[in-house]
């Protein structure tokens, strides 16, 4: 999924400001508090479009903190309330992003300013921080429009939450900080351990906060001694209510259980149920599209059959309000609603470049093998370049400015899905999966036909904890209610022949494998020592596979230009204060700007660059009408460069002790040739756009070379991800149990099992050219055929082999015999 710069500056994480921040715009302002005499380095966010009322955070550091890393500071927070209400809350992230950093939150209540240390591993209500950070107040003020607190923060510059550790180094001369503020008060405001926070609605951002010599002060110790006040909690309010679950009905079994209703699971649900088998699709989240009972929508959609997910122009709302939508168990943004990524993304829909399959995939999964599956997918979801039902494209000034330059420079305009293999110096209008002016895609096609069959069932709000295995054979799954109405208990598969397919995504499926005792030894040890430990499958049945390795994503490098013709449209306002001309056009005829994905994407363009290592690397550029870094919206366009097929860097995803997942090793720019392609791509684009009159390069600007720009840009998932995560359960013939890199075989069956499959982005050996949704749907079409063609599992006779390190046959035995481990290499039906 694309991450808009709003997101990059925001909710999630990120250091969209990092490249500049380090160079310039975060110079501190010295502020001496009149009441205490303490001098701070502060970085005020002025009242204005970024935040109403303004926000200031400042620090005073121990005297030697600029040479020796400190682990404490005196902090200054000044935050705004709305309209004389003395309410609201604010917070800072001491590491920058919202996730995996120590968060300090503050809010006024009953004359005091309360605080709470928090830690988030996903984009949901942050957990209480469990480390020994200590906050003691020096002073606080509350008036009708602002609240402020000066506090000593000990053990605050390094943190550790359940084994996830991080730190901020004061001797580096800067910190990367994140801030948020919001108008509504927290729930349970006088009980910091039990607060509930509304999503921040009054701005957020990330910046590099530079220190000057006034940051550290010889008076620090004397100042710190003034910290004597702790605000006493008053609890007793209601705590969080339990989730209402439904027990798994007894006696129920299914031939196929598919875990995860996204780009992989939905097509499978359709194809497998079409074959007559009984099929259950389990989705962790609630319904999204109005078609299946979704209800989340802005006021102007009330009374229609549409939700926020159905209207293309509202797709970026996810970056403002993701409560109840984003997955809460991963540090990356993922959609935990019916449809998964295809419900929340910008809907980009590309006919695959055949070289992607041919270069990345093993024999059996080459483009020729996938031709029929590709036709089936594109006959059901043809996609469109002109989503508005009147056939017009709206607000194309930005497109025209850039496309004109590319054309003059000799790049060719193509209709992307008519010539999918023309991906070198070509440009195109954006192709979307939309139909009828609505999102469409797999939800509107495959799931509709599946839902019409009596042998198909769908469980929402239900999370799968693990598969239950007897050796290499899955007998059932253990489910838990994730939201109200979800199921709880153990669901059995059809005896002997039943199958489970994991389609829970690159993080979700990998985690499920690990919780089921399948993965690298270090990861299974973490599961064993977690709350799962006592009920985890016996270690004699663990299957060592390289789950979580080979993590890949399009490396994103944002560039920014401005041009006087560019016409910005505020898609965020389309949620709160929509232009009624535009909503009427949309509601009455599915026409106008709201049929196009936010934030007005295009042109799309591509280039292939051959590296010194002989490998051709694919670049895709996604332009969109919005500013990034400190270039404001208005006349700016961001052109995001994705490094795709050919990139050789890979990373790793791992599981945490609290059973979340993190990107523990980012897959970006470990190889000089990968970096050279990124730089060359920017140089080539600068040259191509040279003839565009009145175009200004903001990032990189005229005085910064492309090489310096790329070399100085931080390499972190927060500012470089595209959220096209793939690869954690790679497909291949080199069995990972014997040192190979593959987790699933060519039938997508997990090595060492006879009825467990993975079909989603995790099986991809690497990222393709474009946004991957269509590729995942095609892979699912293909997998459905291969899985249906597999002979039914047949139990072994008495004395037959039924397991062992290299075993690829059936792991079941004819009654009354059972499969018994003789040694790691041999199990026998006895
Ligand atoms: C160009 O960008 C660099 C780094 O972001 C900045 O330091 C410099 O001031 C900018 N120059 C101009 C002319 O804007
Ligand atoms: C926690 O930190 C405070 C402040 O540094 C210290 O006084 C206290 O002893 C620490 N407690 C533990 C359990 O480490
Ligand atoms: C409110 O408090 C702030 C300090 O937090 C102060 O600067 C401001 O002047 C006060 N405003 C009023 C109206 O008292
Ligand atoms: C699943 O199968 C087991 C063993 O055959 C049985 O005890 C259990 O009741 C079944 N569960 C359900 C929900 O039917
Ligand atoms: C909403 O209703 C229209 C008109 O009947 C239909 O074409 C469209 O598919 C429906 N969309 C959803 C999301 O239900
Ligand atoms: C799923 O949970 C959502 C949010 O709590 C709720 O609105 C919806 O009714 C639930 N759906 C089902 C099928 O229980
Ligand atoms: C497996 O578990 C047993 C018993 O809990 C333990 O003694 C043994 O060391 C474990 N083996 C591995 C490889 O973890
Ligand atoms: C609303 O959008 C239309 C174009 O659809 C535009 O002409 C009009 O100026 C906009 N109105 C406002 C108040 O922005
Ligand atoms: C891409 O096109 C350019 C311009 O025609 C050409 O120089 C370059 O070799 C092509 N790249 C590859 C990998 O073929
Ligand atoms: C460039 O800007 C100048 C002055 O701002 C204007 O007169 C001219 O028309 C512009 N040219 C183009 C091609 O936009
Ligand atoms: C220092 C100060 O007063 N800051 C802000 C307090 O809030 C009002 C309105 O919300 C702002 O106008 C002030 O700038």
From TrEMBL:
Keywords: FAD, Flavoprotein, Secreted, Signal. GO terms for cellular component: extracellular region. One of its GO terms (molecular function) is flavin adenine dinucleotide binding. One of its GO terms (biological process) is carbohydrate metabolic process. It is found in: Secreted. Residues 1-23 form the signal peptide. Residues 794-830 form the CBM1 domain. InterPro entries: CBD (IPR000254), CBD_sf (IPR035971), Cellobiose_DH-like_cyt (IPR015920), FAD/NAD-bd_sf (IPR036188), GMC_Oxidoreductase_CD (IPR053208), GMC_OxRdtase_N (IPR000172), GMC_OxRtase_C (IPR007867). The keyword Acyltransferase does not apply. Pfam families: CBM_1, CDH-cyt, GMC_oxred_C, GMC_oxred_N, NAD_binding_8. Belongs to the GMC oxidoreductase family. This is Carbohydrate-binding module family 1 protein.
């Amino acid at each position: 999924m694309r991450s808009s710069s709003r997101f990059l500056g925001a909710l999630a994480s990120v250091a969209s400001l990092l490249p500049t921040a380090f160079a310039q715009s975060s110079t501190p302002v010295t502020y001496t508090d009149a009441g205490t005499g303490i001098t701070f380095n502060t970085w005020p966010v002025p009242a204005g479009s970024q935040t109403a009322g303004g926000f200031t955070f400042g620090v005073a550091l121990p005297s030697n903190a600029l040479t020796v890393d400190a682990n404490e500071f005196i902090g200054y927070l000044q935050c705004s309330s709305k309209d004389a209400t003395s309410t609201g809350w604010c917070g800072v992230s001491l590491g920058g992003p919202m996730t995996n950093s120590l968060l300090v939150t503050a809010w006024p209540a009953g004359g005091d300013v309360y605080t709470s240390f928090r830690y988030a591993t996903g984009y949901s209500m942050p957990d209480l921080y469990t480390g020994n950070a200590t906050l003691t107040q020096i002073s606080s003020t509350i008036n009708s429009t602002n609240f402020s607190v000066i506090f000593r923060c000990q053990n605050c510059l390094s943190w550790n939450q359940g084994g996830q550790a991080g730190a901020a180094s004061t001797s580096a001369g800067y910190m990367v900080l994140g801030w948020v503020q919001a108008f509504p008060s927290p729930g349970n405001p006088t009980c910091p351990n039990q607060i509930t926070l509304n999503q921040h609605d009054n701005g957020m951002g990330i910046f590099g906060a530079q220190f000057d010599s006034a940051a550290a002060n010889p008076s620090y110790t004397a100042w710190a001694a003034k910290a004597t006040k702790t605000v006493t909690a008053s609890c007793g309010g209601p705590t969080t209510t339990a989730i209402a679950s439904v027990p798994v009905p007894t006696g129920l079994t299914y031939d196929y259980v598919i875990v995860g209703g996204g780009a992989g699971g939905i097509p499978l649900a359709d194809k497998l149920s079409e074959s007559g088998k009984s099929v259950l699709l389990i989705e962790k989240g609630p319904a999204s599209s109005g078609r299946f009972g979704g209800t989340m929508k802005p006021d102007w959609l009330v009374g229609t059959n549409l939700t926020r997910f159905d209207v293309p122009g509202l797709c970026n709302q996810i970056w403002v309000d993701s409560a109840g939508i984003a997955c809460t168990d991963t540090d990356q943004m993922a959609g935990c609603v019916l449809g998964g990524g295809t419900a929340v993304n910008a809907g980009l829909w590309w006919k695959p470049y055949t070289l992607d399959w041919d270069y990345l995939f093993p024999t059996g999964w080459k483009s020729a093998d996938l031709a029929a599956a590709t036709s089936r997918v594109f006959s059901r979801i043809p996609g469109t370049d002109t989503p508005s039902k009147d056939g017009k494209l709206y607000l194309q000034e930005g497109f025209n400015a850039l496309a004109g330059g590319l054309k003059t420079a000799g790049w060719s305009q193509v209709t992307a899905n008519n010539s999918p293999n023309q991906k070198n110096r070509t440009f195109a209008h954006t192709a979307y999966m939309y139909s009828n002016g609505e999102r469409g895609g797999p939800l509107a096609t495959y799931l509709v036909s599946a839902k019409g069959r009596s042998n198909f069932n769908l469980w929402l709000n239900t999370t799968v904890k693990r598969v239950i295995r007897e050796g290499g054979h899955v007998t059932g799954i253990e489910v838990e209610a994730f939201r109200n109405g979800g199921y709880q208990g153990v669901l059995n598969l059809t005896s002997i022949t039943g199958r489970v397919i994991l389609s829970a995504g690159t993080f979700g499926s990998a985690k499920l494998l690990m919780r089921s005792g399948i993965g690298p030894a270090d990861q299974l040890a973490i599961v064993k020592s977690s709350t799962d430990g006592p009920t985890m499958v016996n270690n004699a049945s663990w299957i060592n596979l390289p789950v979580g390795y080979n993590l890949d994503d399009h490396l994103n490098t944002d560039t920014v230009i401005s041009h006087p013709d560019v016409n910005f449209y505020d898609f965020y306002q389309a949620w709160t204060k929509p232009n009624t001309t535009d909503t009427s056009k949309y509601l009455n005829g599915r026409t106008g700007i709201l049929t196009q994905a936010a934030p007005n994407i295009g042109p799309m363009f591509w280039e292939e660059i051959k590296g010194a290592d002989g490998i051709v690397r694919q670049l895709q550029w996604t332009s969109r009408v919005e500013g990034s870094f400190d270039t404001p919206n208005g006349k700016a366009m961001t052109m995001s460069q994705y490094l795709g097929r050919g990139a050789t860097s890979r990373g790793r995803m791992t599981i945490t002790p609290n059973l979340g997942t993190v990107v523990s090793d980012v897959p970006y720019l470990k190889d000089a040739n990968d970096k050279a392609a990124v730089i060359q791509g920017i140089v080539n684009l600068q040259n191509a756009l040279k003839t565009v009159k009145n175009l200004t390069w903001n990032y990189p600007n005229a005085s910064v070379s492309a090489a310096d720009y790329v070399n100085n840009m931080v390499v972190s998932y927060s500012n470089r991800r595209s959220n096209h995560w793939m690869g954690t359960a790679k497909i291949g013939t080199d069995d990972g149990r014997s040192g190979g890199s593959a987790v699933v075989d060519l039938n997508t069956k997990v090595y060492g099992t006879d009825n467990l499959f993975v079909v989603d982005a995790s099986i991809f050996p690497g990222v393709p050219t474009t946004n991957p949704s269509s590729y995942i749907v095609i892979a699912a079409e293909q997998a459905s055929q291969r899985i249906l063609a597999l002979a039914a599992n047949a139990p072994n006779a008495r004395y037959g082999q039924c397991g062992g390190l290299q075993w690829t046959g059936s792991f079941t035995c004819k009654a009354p015999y059972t499969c018994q481990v003789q040694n790691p290499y041999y199990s026998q039906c006895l």
